[in-house]
Amino acid sequence: MLIIKFPFMKKHLILISWAFILYTCHAFSQQTDYVLVIHGGAGNITSERFNHEKQALYNQKLTEALTVGDSILAGNGTALDAVVAAIQVMEDCPLFNSGKGAVFNADGKNELDASIMDGKTLKAGAVAGVMIIKSPVAAARRVMDSSSHVMLAGRGAEEFARLQGLEIVDPGYFYTDESWQEYLNVKAKIEKNGRKGTVGAVALDKNGNLAAATSTGGMVYKKYGRIGDSPVIGAGTYASNESCAVSCTGHGEFFIRNAVAFDVSARMLYLGESVEKAAGYIINEKLKNQGASGGLIALDKDGNFCMPFNTPGMFRGYIRQGGHAEVFMFNQ
Amino acid sequence: MLIIKFPFMKKHLILISWAFILYTCHAFSQQTDYVLVIHGGAGNITSERFNHEKQALYNQKLTEALTVGDSILAGNGTALDAVVAAIQVMEDCPLFNSGKGAVFNADGKNELDASIMDGKTLKAGAVAGVMIIKSPVAAARRVMDSSSHVMLAGRGAEEFARLQGLEIVDPGYFYTDESWQEYLNVKAKIEKNGRKGTVGAVALDKNGNLAAATSTGGMVYKKYGRIGDSPVIGAGTYASNESCAVSCTGHGEFFIRNAVAFDVSARMLYLGESVEKAAGYIINEKLKNQGASGGLIALDKDGNFCMPFNTPGMFRGYIRQGGHAEVFMFNQ
């Protein structure tokens, strides 16, 4: 190197070394403490309806989802990879209304939705009304990464997922006794508002990048190709490194009309509200006053987060760098 | 009336009469001057590409759409009825990429999207990927008025429209030589960014209610059931009596990721910006900096409106109470 050849540049070499050390320290000090927050749906979740055995099952699966995401973030993985992995644990499990546990629509079929957003680039992907994709959140990720579009629906989305080499399953894969029983119950009651649970995750990685993703089977006994808020960027999912990452669950029509996920970010950026204040206002005042039930998880760029809901309970949990998984179901 | 029976109350009667006259004047003065603003898509619209004959055709149809909407608003009709009627004039005409003039997707089919929102109630409706509904905006209106959902997609949305008694057409209805030629051209070039025009309308009625609606055939040669911003409430369409009504046209993926229509409202409510400042910033700075092309029409609750676009042109026009239809195509 030139520096070594010219002794009079020793001073420069020392200065460069110092600069390098300072830069390295600065780079390390700029590393963010990562955080992962998840939800498994809001609703009539009470200790009366969930016995200890069932509570233990949910706690175990929420903890597993957090642990899987944590291992990715701890290894300097991205927030995007962490939210996908955490959601896939819940998608593969029949306890939640997403993936394997998706509810049945009015035709006795499972139509799944999912979305994802990258806070760094504002890129986003979503699939709606898909029936044979094992992991809808993985498909949403591919739409974001490997297509020029944000939202793909129905058979077209399935064809895209197949071409992308994602795991395709027989529609029968999504059958579970519990979901089918729920379908029969709702059908008998001609009642449209059944279980509305959804799963979601938001993460902040060590590089300070935020990501959000949501996956759902939608509303039980839904008709006419109904699309809820989960695959709608701005309604059920939003992420921007400037503000926060958000994933919602609840009465989707209200979440669309109020552009809830984007509004959390807008209130933070334009009104200077904290993530707690913005999300709390939307869930506990704005939506509540409209008679809309649900909740959300929101995580800001500094690692502050909140998990507000206006229903009796919401499956939820979080893990911070160096911490343990903390999971909750009821209002506490 | 008691007042007449007691002469000592004459003074009261006079006071009451005055109060009534004042109230009536006040009620009349509270009536809003209505406004209707429409667009027929933004894009590479220049005088080189559109000869005088073609310009006349567009001007005539935009004027007709404004006139039809105007007659509704003049007769004390609602903003909702006016935006639907104005859009239907454009849907029924092959000049625009909506309804009859919808572009072809990669499979050589026409898949149409539309949405509508009522600023008074925040109710909204949308259909996505429909192939046999003559007027997608009418279907969106029915979703809003006659279902408990906001967004219906594909065959389910078509079944719903049929049950609602809307006009169903053979898919061949949407064939036009021009759209087919465009499809063949784009297919030959394996080029994905063809015509992106869309139609939309925003209106303020005499009762001070705002409404917005959008209708499109989407992106020419689109694949995989791609859904753009037009049927996404908050992205392509938004209305709230608190702020404004917005309808967008352009590169839909960017409009979704930026929740453009809702953001105009959010900036007005949270930052106190005028409709011109909010919409102008989003189109000419935020989206332009992201490399996203398009435009929008936005109308506030006081009748102020703007029609910004960052493309060479946008088909657009407006009419105010007691005024004439004013239509434009190019940047001026």
Which properties best describe this structure?
10 helices, alpha+beta, 332 residues, disordered N terminus, 13 strands, homodimer, 22% strand, Glutamine Phosphoribosylpyrophosphate, subunit 1, domain 1, globular, 4-stranded antiparallel sheet
Structural class of chain A: alpha+beta
Mean pLDDT of chain A, rounded to whole units? 90
Query: How many individual helices of chain A?
Result: 10
Distance between the termini of chain A: 63 Å
> What is the strand content of chain A?
15-25%
Quaternary structure: homodimer
Report on the architecture of this protein:
- The structure is a homodimer of 332-residue chains.
- Chain A has 332 residues and is α+β, with helices and mostly antiparallel strands.
- The model of chain A is unreliable at 1-9 and 20-29 (pLDDT under 50).
- Chain A contains ten helices and 13 strands.
- Chain A has a single domain (31-330), classed as (Glycosyl)asparaginase (Glutamine Phosphoribosylpyrophosphate, subunit 1, domain 1, 4-Layer Sandwich).
- Chains A and B meet through strand 3, strand 4, helix 6, strand 7 and helix 8 of A and strand 3, strand 4, helix 6, strand 7 and helix 8 of B.
